[in-house]
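To: structure subgroup
Subject: Chain for Friday's discussion

All,

I'm putting the inputs and outputs inline so they're searchable in the archive.
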Amino acid sequence: MKFDLNRAVEILQQTPYTLLRMLDDLSPEWTEVKIDAESWSPYDIIGHLIHGEETDWIPRAEIILAQGESRNFVPFDQTGHFEKSQGKSLNDLLTEFAHIRNANIERLLRLEITPEQLSLKGIHPEFGEVTLEQHLATWVVHDLNHIRQIVTNMARHYDAEVGPWKEYLSILR
């Protein structure tokens, strides 16, 4: 599917509600336990999504649209959410994510991005030149990627318990 801002907003609007419905009122064993030292729990992922809303998606889109002398993005701290999330409940994080996402969608729509502006470029610290279209498409896929990550993490809690059915459960492979 070709990138379309309206289609992108459809997913961006639904992500907070999808996560709220999926995670609200689950026990900490589902939402706070990490499968291994390298993985993030669903709680960690919600914190990460909030951090991205604050420091990545809209701020970088605005940098690209400003087209000033410097179009360089500030490097994104992949683990910047850990300290900020400390002491908050999952429900607090889900509510915070929904509020900041809704505000960012409003900001995005107020930008009134034209098809021509989608080809404007910014400088990513790792990838170099990226277009606004690539950046916004990545925002959508980033959401979907983390939803998959949450679901996979949760499924892996019953990895051994499913017995021989594991062969048919691609989420566990």
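Points worth raising on Friday:
The domain at 5-172 is CATH 1.20.120.450 (Four Helix Bundle (Hemerythrin (Met), subunit A)).
The longest helix spans residues 132-156.

D.
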